[in-house]
Amino acid sequence: MTRLTKRIESVKPSATITISAKAMELRAKGVDVISLSQGEPDFDTPNHIKEAAFQAIKDGKTKYTPVDGTPEIKEAIIKKFKRDNNLEYKAENILVSTGAKHTLFNLFQSVLEEGNEAIVISPYWVSYPDMVILAGAKPIVVNTLQKNNFDLDLDHLRQALTDNTRLIILNSPSNPTGVTFTKEQYHGIGSILKDYPKVLIATDDMYEHIFWGNHKFCSFAEACPDLFERTITINGVSKAYAMTGWRIGYCGGPVDIVKAMKKIQGQNTSNASSISQAAATAALNGSHNEVIEMVKAYEDRHQYLCEALNNLDGFKVVPGTGAFYLFPDVSKAIKALGMKNDLDFSEYLLEKAGVAVVPGTAFGAEGFIRISYATSMSALEQSISRIKKVLR
Could you tell me the pTM of the whole model? Predict the structure, then answer.
């Protein structure tokens, strides 16, 4: 007889964390492994951000803060939303959490319950469906296709919407594909959602600044201002500022929803780290010069890796316009090696090539793998060489 709930037993461990942990375990045993599995910048946090943290410690800012964040960080977030996204918020519209994952969890717990449905677009970030399940709701997956550049088919979206739909999750630039929604694509999505007033829109803009598309990055609430009061815009400092370990995420949204999220947070973690909040404030208010340099490096790696992957037998990849991932279709390589699926293929690459990747099944797309290029160019070159050898 199990002592665990059916809900928790239906949730899978995070695939990205599991693969990264296995790669680190092999390294600890002396195995030469190149990890292309973890979504974490390989750069250090910029110095002016670290200095702000040091100063916060010196100034004794080591106590509890308000649950929803210090006045300083909330003001910085309000300015960021206005400066970068043309969105107007007040302090009561802002919640600061322990990472954007925590922000999303608070949101799902606040607006979803048993009998509800949430639309998740595949390929999706691995945690979306499981966080929906943990809220008691049902994830409804709408698939996109590589041959269509992973663009969302609006007819498929219409078919997925029901009287039980309460939330749709949009992620741009995408983890795992690197594809970004355009303003025009958001207009199309918004035109459909206008007819479903019960549906809230959660936009995960975590990779907003890691972007090199020909069009200007646009957040959903900016593209569809008539849906502003139904949109929760989620972001954080982890990726753009190389601050994954600092654990600061935030959102802007309707007062009633943000208030509910604050209530949830007040009963589990309370405030995010006071020192991390000070550092994140400096990140949001400070120079973006180092961010620009990091993004240029990501773009260079992206260009190299696109060409290199498409030259591998059985690989096919479409270029992205942001984040630091590529999502190649490896179904032909899997078939050529006589394997069953991308899980076996990923295991094979780890054991035979010493390269850690994440199977596409974890992102709702069987026959694919996710490759992170948040690593050095030399590591990418070595990885391609190793993979090429084991495909023969």
Answer: 0.95
